[in-house]
Amino acid sequence: MAVCIGFIGKENSPLFLRCINPSQELQFHYIMHTCIDFVEEKIIQSNKSGSDVRELYLGLLYSSEEVKAYGFVTNTKVKIVIIIDSTNSLLRDNEIRAIFRKLHNAYTELVCNPFYTPGDPITAKSFSILVDELLASSSSSS
Amino acid sequence: MCRMSSKTQPVITYSGDTQLFSTLESATSQGLPQETVEWKRSYGRPPRAVTLSASFQPFKIDNDVSKELSKGLKKLSGSQVLHTYWVECPDVDTYKASVRENIQAWFTQVKQVECSDWLIILVETSDSKKSNKILPRTTVLDKVKNDFGGKTTERCLSVVDPVKGETKSSESWQTFLFRLRQALMAAFSRTLSKFEETVRTQRERRNELNWNFCNYFLLQEELAFAFEMLGLYDEALVQYDELDALFTQFVLNSAVGDAPDWLLAFQATPNNWSGVCLNPKTPFNLELRQKIQDHNMSVIDFRNYLFARQSALLLISSKPAEVARRCLSYVQSYMYELKLLNVSTVDGAIPTWILLTCLQVLSTCQSHVGASGASMESFALLWNMAKDKLYELGRKCGLLPGASVGSAELHCVVTLSSGITDFGDESAVRPTPVDKLKEALSSSQAFTRHYLELSELAMGTFKHCGRLRSARLIGRDLSRFYLQLDQPQKSVSFLLDLLRGYQEENWPLLKIDTHIELAEVFLKIGDRVRFIEASANIAAYTGLNSETRMKYFNYLLQSAQDFDTSLDEPCSVLCDSTVSANVEVISHFPGPVNCSEVTVTVKAVKSAATDGSKLSKSGGKKSVTDKPIEPVTSEKPNSYVSARTKNPPSNDYIPIKEQLHLKQDGSLSSVALVCPSAQQLLGRKVSHGLLPTELSVTKEEFTHKLSVQDVTILPGVNKLTLTMKADHEGTYVVSQFVASSQKLEFIQSINCPKLSLTVVEVMPSVMVIKSRDDLLAGTEQEVELVIRTGSTAFQNEKTLRLCSSRGLTIHLPNTDTTFQREVDLVLRPIAAFETVTFPLKIMADLGFTSSKEATFVEHKLSVHCPWLSKTPPLLDLPLNVYAPFTVQYKLHTAYTKKFVNIHVQGLTPSSRAFEFQNPNVLLPDSTYKNSALSKLEWKNLNGSSQSLKISQEQPANYLWELCGAPVQYEMPLLKAEFSVDYRLDGSVDWKKFSFNFDITDYATLFTVRSRVEPVKGNDFLRAGSLCHMTLTVSDVLQQASSAALMYEVLADQALWAVCGRTAGVFSMEGSSKHSVTLDVMPLVCGFLPLPAVRLSRYIPAEQKPKDGNRKPDLAAASLPRLEPFSAGQVYNWSKAQQVHVLAAPSNNGPTSLDTSTS
């Protein structure tokens, strides 16, 4: 069950973070920030392999007793991180990929909005509604 | 290596001449694994080269075994895969007599056993071979092959006995071994396939009631053993991984459905949590394996065994990094499993187990990998996990700093220790993880040491592999720990590091969280300034809940109240003020000392870039303890007093110089700050060196001192107040205490650079402040003259004289003076740091508005300030005054009529528009005295008494017709004046604005008319076809000028093509009209503007121009040249006319000419 979804900007500043339980927000901020380490490492690794078409999905970034973090990085170096509950073994890789795809689409749509400056914290209502729905659906499906 | 290899090796039985075999057994079993043999495998798996070894057993029929075998292979290890018969038979006769029967009997028995692979080995001596060479197929071997071989004659081998040591025998022996390997491989492969089949069958039955995972585990593990024996470690690992996955699946399923009975056994409470044993010397934990066999194990034991086996295989394959990586997920999934299985454990057992496992894995892996970078990431995570778990244990056992140990905590320690056992490995590196943990649990100090060590390792490893953020996060834990340890100073650097990271990447929430922690730390340290800073940051962050913000806001306000007493900042005083210091002197003399003067000297500190005048001195309160030693009774007036300040010395001023590095071309390359005495300052300070020794005290030269006269210092504490007049710039620190008593001077160095004083002297300043809008010329503008007194008060009345630059006048409101260029201002006495404002009205001339370029004029207000040291004491204040509008004059012509146009363009925004009325044009009276001009008069074309508003958006135009001008070639210059009344919109007074301009060439001399017509036969103009252009020049004056004229047709080359000459010279002599016809061709269709025609005066070579004032240079005089007419002299009728051109003809349709004037 996905408990938190976060967007991190090109310069590694947080763009958007939404979690199911708001009291855990601070904790998730810490996890998200640490995840940048792992994302950077994975990007360097994939650059080394030298394939032209870069896989945007980075897979499992980090796991602890409580949570697991999965990563995704767009071509514009915007990072998307999904944090799921460790006890959930039902959310498969494919489903996580699907969520990332939806999030990526939502972000693309957001960037198309001329009133949004890329790199600014995201405050768009439609965007947060969409993320909330994704969070709710991924947690109810499990 | 102490492996279970003897048990897992396949068995080869031997029969026949056992005595003979016993001589060969060792050679055979050693020879077998010396070379690899290719293993071709079923199910399309790739062939592998493997090393095969075997053990030998005498052949005997075991009925039980054979029965079991008929049901399927239950056991792989120790199973007989190949049967051999060894015989030495010198000749055929012997063979026929006895050997054949013996072989026959054995052969029959072998056939009964299921694994019926066999070999008959005939051991020969070389001479026996030779003797039978004569007849083919008559050797013993041939006979054997004939009798038993059937289709597989290669099962019958002969070998020359190597024991006999003959040269030929070695080759024969190698061939034999090769054949034996092949046979053994084939046989073993066959057995293995059968066994795999059994395993598969067992697995299929896993949902049956009486199926038990332990049994199955042992069964499949045999496969792993077999692969390991063959050296196929990866294949062996696959077996364990399959078992791992199978078990995990069972556990997961049990969470949602019913757990099978066998799984319940795993829920037993574990009583040992020593972690995984990875001792490379004992890859099999027999004790644990026995437990599996007995179905008597906890899940912790099972997992330990499984992980140990997996790790052992990975380590053999030199993949220690993989071990570390797996360990992480292993530990995590394991904890999850415990939850699912509802295993009850002793409190703290799980963290202990995790901690020990992490440490075990780390120590094992590092010994293998030698700390190579590849696996650092996993190591770092393991260190981190171990650190966290140790902390958890510390919390449970009351070992955290500041925690108290009660009976519950002690009990916890005892219980946990009981479940930790060493693995009995004497050769392990001491201290083992178990030793470490036991030590850490023994005392709070030991725990602290171990925790810090683990944190250090985790942090270092993270940094090493570039995970700075993770490393910093550990810093956060560490800072908390240090806070608990009551060492908040150590927390600061970690937190600041974190803060820097979050600030760089702009994580506001984390930043504030760090600020909150920092605030707590600073509060503990007592660093009020930074505490306030952090509090302000927290209180100002809107993302935080309001209680927290309010809490810190209140801290902030509270601290701000206590601020002035708590800060030990150097204080600043004004120049020329009196400074006093309270000095506490303790005299240890038994009697009073009369001092003529007690002084505290202050020493100037050279500060970089002092722009004001500064003087410093000790401020605030100062305590000095004097510990006099017996005064030296000599002629020398210097007695020595050693002393000590109560405040410890800190923050020494470091002398720093600025260094500019210049490039060769003199431009700046770099700037550096250099400390010339760095070595001295960075040198290690020995603590006793801080106190001056007796001999080192010398009286310093000084010019500034705080002093008090004629005091008596009594034994004990004396409180003195010393004063000084601060009159010099510079920063000063306290230097020495000197008490002069008659001819004795008691000197005491005061080593407290914090006691310093800055004296500030701020020069008075004068400024002109205008309102938000630009100053406009031509109208009254209000400005303010602001005088700041700075640090010096103006004691007496002073007079300021203001002088303005030319074109600017000043007026002081509330006085009866008018606008003038010089104004005197009287200043009453003003206190220091006061500001006096004088309103001023200024008025700038409008004279510059006729020039187009200058839209503003830089005026200057000079203030005569008596306090300035320079001569003359003038202070120039720049004032930019902008033009409110610009005026342009233009002459327009309509045939012979002349119009004068005055264009007024506003430059101000519409909010400050100007209003205009009563425009007028005048010629001076002297003009009318010229008889030719006496009839001139102006015809006003403007609306009478109309007022216009002018701004940036709204220009104004005035128009007059000039009537009655004489018609002649040479027209006298007219000097005209335009005048108008204006005022700033909203003001009352009208002001007059006048503008002078010259009117020249105000007679029309020639007119030009041009026409374009289709050639005859065509009715229309068409693009691409020729047509005629007729120019007609008329002499308006009809005074038959003899001057030659030149016309030029200037056609837009994109629209018109002119055929033939575009220019020509003609003379008007004799006629008033002249016509020229040219051929032109329109290039495009549409409404085309006619080609422009320019008419100029043509001056042939070597002819003086008619204008006598002109003095052409000689070269020009010898050449013909053109003199253009000015705008008013030629009138073009056809200006801006257009003709309609049709598209190029597609057929011979009619053409039309259409001329229209736009």
TrEMBL record, chain A:
Top-level taxon: Eukaryota
Single biological process term from Gene Ontology: endoplasmic reticulum to Golgi vesicle-mediated transport
Localisation: Cytoplasm, Perinuclear region
Gene3D superfamilies in alphabetical order: 3.30.450.70
Pfam families given in the database record: Sedlin_N
An annotated GO cellular component: perinuclear region of cytoplasm
InterPro entries assigned: Longin-like_dom_sf, Sedlin, TRAPPC2L
This protein's UniProt keywords: ER-Golgi transport, Transport
SUPFAM superfamilies from the UniProt entry: SNARE-like
Family that this chain belongs to: Belongs to the TRAPP small subunits family. Sedlin subfamily.
Protein name: Trafficking protein particle complex subunit 2-like protein
Native species: Daphnia pulex (Water flea)
TrEMBL record, chain B:
Keyword field: Golgi apparatus, Transport
Domain called TRAPPC10 Ig-like: residue spans: 766-871
Record bears the keyword Transport: yes
Alphabetized InterPro entries for the sequence: Ig_TRAPPC10, TRAPPC10/Trs130, TRAPPC10/Trs130_C, TRAPPC10/Trs130_N
Residue ranges occupied by any TRAPPC10/Trs130 N-terminal domain in the UniProt entry: 7-324
Compositionally biased tracts (Polar residues): 635-648
Comp. bias intervals (Low complexity): 612-622
Domain spans labelled TRAPPC10/Trs130 C-terminal: 1016-1142
Location of the region described as Disordered in the Swiss-Prot/TrEMBL record: 612-648
One matching Pfam family: TRAPPC10_1st
Chief place where the protein resides: Golgi
Record's protein name: Trafficking protein particle complex subunit 10
Source organism: Daphnia pulex (Water flea)
Lineage: Eukaryota, Metazoa, Ecdysozoa, Arthropoda, Crustacea
